[in-house]
Amino acid sequence: xxxxxxxxxxxxxxxxxxxxxxYVLDLMVRSVERLSPKHVLxxxxxxxxxxxxxxxxxxxVRVDGSSTTFLRRPISINYVDRERNELWLMVxxxxxxxxxxGSIQAGSKLNCMLPLGNTFTMPATLAEKxxxxxxxxxxxxMLYLGAELRWQxxxxxxxxxxxxxxxxxxxxxxxxxxxxxxxxxxxSMGEKGFVTNHSVLQExxxxxxxxxxxxxxxxxxxxxxxxxxxCEVSLENMMACGLGACLCCVEKTxxxxxxxxxxxxxxxVKRLLWQI
Length: 276
Description:
Layout lengths: L1 H18 L3 E14 L2 E7 L12 E4 L11 E9 L4 E7 L3 H7 L6 E8 L13 E6 L4 H12 L5 E6 L8 H4 L4 E6 L6 E2 L14 E5 L2 H13 L3 E5 L15 E4 L2 E4 H4 L2 E3 L8
Parallel strand pairs: 7-8, 7-11, 8-9, 9-10, 11-12
Antiparallel strand pairs: 1-2, 1-6, 2-5, 3-4, 3-6, 4-5, 12-15, 13-14
């Protein structure tokens, strides 16, 4: 019965993703919150109810105010507040396009194409222990995933890592949905080292979901393989169109070259040709 329910739930999830309508909307910026010197949180809304969006999916944002930015910028969905009809996007200001997004003012309009990509696999039973690992800006999609898991009755554990304490964002929100474990490379918060060094990994987990720098995700995937744990990663390959047309985000997989924006960004590590 458990095997049947597992395959049924995941087949249904795949079907829903395939038929989800894509929208191009001019969303209003309700607020811009400075999370750190290099991160801002944009809260967007619309007059109509926002489309259904799933954890792991992303948004392609048009940058209108930069003379050097011609392509949309992919931003992971950080959170969806259904009561306030808000979409949250965490932006790391690292280039002209994202710096412009970080300077936008409340009340402005932001053209967004959404929702794009697939979602994480939900556990088959409430008995499964789930570990969500986020590094750097890769922490962003872990919040919405953790919230969704909690709403469905699970109790996820978060393992969040950064270079310093300044890189660890939204910790008060994460703590609302599960236990939060922290690592920093300089030891300024939590345990010193990388996420794969944290003592929580001595516990038993049935499933790991992770997003962050590729070296971190490869290390997490290696740990999962060694311990027989199901593991899904959310890839951050360079994306332009978000629809699988430009082929700039191709990843080598067991099924050939696949576009991360269309077939991902979430992949089971067993599908990837990583040397783990």
